[in-house]
Amino acid sequence: MDKKRIIIINGPNLNLLGKREPEIYGADSFEEFLKKLQIKNPELHIDYYQSNIEGKLVSKIQQADSDFDGILLNAAAYTHTSVAIHDAIGAITTPVVEIHISNIYKREEFRHKSIISSKCVGMISGLGLKGYQLGLNYFKN
């Protein structure tokens, strides 16, 4: 049986995990965390992509539609501003789970609105990096 192919797509500033506001985001880099996810989920093929550039995220979402069975998307700040990412999710058939490391509802008011949520199958927010594992669990069924 083929492994389900899942891609994790992270948006702007998530390349700074481990350095940026560790009290909110933790001390591990995402690459370190990704290795742990891959070991813990051997029944899945997990790829990873990160960009600070909105258009590259849109292109990766479009490409993922033909290459992957599921997407975990942490659009970061673009969650609250990007109609382009919203439209890209709406244009594909691959299910997308929206992920946020921090609880967006406990932060600044402008972060309380997610433009992309209406196109995602669900959202996980505020559980730290554990949210990625919960998202992977969704695709295991």
UniProtKB/TrEMBL annotation:
Q: Catalysed reaction per UniProt?
A: 3-dehydroquinate = 3-dehydroshikimate + H2O
Q: Origin, by domain of life? A: Bacteria
Q: In which pathway does it act?
A: Metabolic intermediate biosynthesis; chorismate biosynthesis; chorismate from D-erythrose 4-phosphate and phosphoenolpyruvate: step 3/7
From the UniProt record, which GO molecular function terms apply?
Answer: 3-dehydroquinate dehydratase activity
Which residues does UniProt mark as catalytic?
Y25 (proton acceptor), H100 (proton donor)
Its function, per the record, reads: Catalyzes a trans-dehydration via an enolate intermediate.
Q: Which family does it belong to?
A: Belongs to the type-II 3-dehydroquinase family.
> What is the protein's given name?
3-dehydroquinate dehydratase
> Whose protein is this, by species?
Marivirga sericea
